[in-house]
UniProtKB/TrEMBL annotation:
Keywords: Transcription, Transcription regulation. Residues 164-215 form the HTH bat-type domain. The lineage of its organism: Archaea, Methanobacteriati, Methanobacteriota, Stenosarchaea group, Halobacteria. InterPro entries: HTH_bacterioopsin, HVO_0513_N. This is Putative DNA binding protein.
Length: 223
């Protein structure tokens, strides 16, 4: 029987800021044009230093097409227009620095969850899952010109709601059902407390803590 090794799996939300001088326009469309807000990488792979990706671009499809037409690194692309943006299939050759960044995270010991986000400020936001020690080791190996910030650390990968405690989820669910989140509000915290069979101060604390976690996730900020 094979020996099974127990590891501590962690979920890390990280912000990567590469050296702007090494990032080609086609590698982050949100930086290349003011008419583009962000780019979400939905999936892809790398073969022989060529990256193939499917992404959603939040912004002007014409601006996307102009950038890609003028790029010498893009081998092929196809744009499908959508409300507020477009879907993009793209193949591009990776620079040495971009390939190093890709290989740092796409390895056996780490899983990168999609989508990951390319922002207009030049940063890359992604969630990685794996052995906590190995993920930390990868981050520490990055060269000095690449800044890596750990935004959040969690023990689950089930989305923002999975970071709530069972009691916090119950409180938010009850508040929703009672009309606490309707506009205008249909009930107060007193009703929520009664449904939870707890003190008003306890119900208020549960709601505030849950809301704090959910808002931090929505804004993608350190909590």
């Amino acid at each position: 029987m094979p020996c099974l090794r127990t590891t501590v799996v962690k979920s890390l939300r990280i912000a990567i800021e590469p050296d702007p001088e090494t990032v080609a326009p086609e590698s982050n469309l949100a930086v290349a044009a003011p008419a583009i807000d962000r780019q979400l990488i939905l999936g892809g792979f790398v073969h022989d230093s060529v990256e193939s990706t499917i992404s959603y671009v939040d912004g002007d499809p014409d601006a996307v097409a102009e950038i890609l037409r003028e790029s010498t690194g893009v081998e092929t692309y196809e744009i499908t227009r959508s409300t507020g943006g477009c879907y993009l299939y793209q193949q591009q050759g990776l620079t040495e620095s971009a390939l190093d960044l890709f290989e740092a995270f796409f390895r056996e010991s780490i899983v990168v969850l999609t989508p990951y986000e390319l922002r207009a400020d030049g940063s890359i936001r992604m969630t990685v899952v794996g052995d906590g020690a190995k993920v930390q080791a990868v981050i520490e190996e990055f060269p000095d010109e690449v800044t890596v910030e750990i935004v959040r650390v969690g023990d689950s990968v089930g989305g923002p709601a999975s970071e709530l405690s069972a009691r916090q989820r119950e409180a938010v669910s009850v508040a929703w059902d009672c009309g606490y989140y309707e506009v205008p509000r249909e009930t107060g915290i007193e009703r929520v407390a009664a449904e939870l069979d707890c003190a008003i101060s306890t119900a208020s604390d549960l709601i505030r803590r849950a809301e704090s976690r959910l808002v931090a996730n929505a804004l993608d900020v350190r909590r």
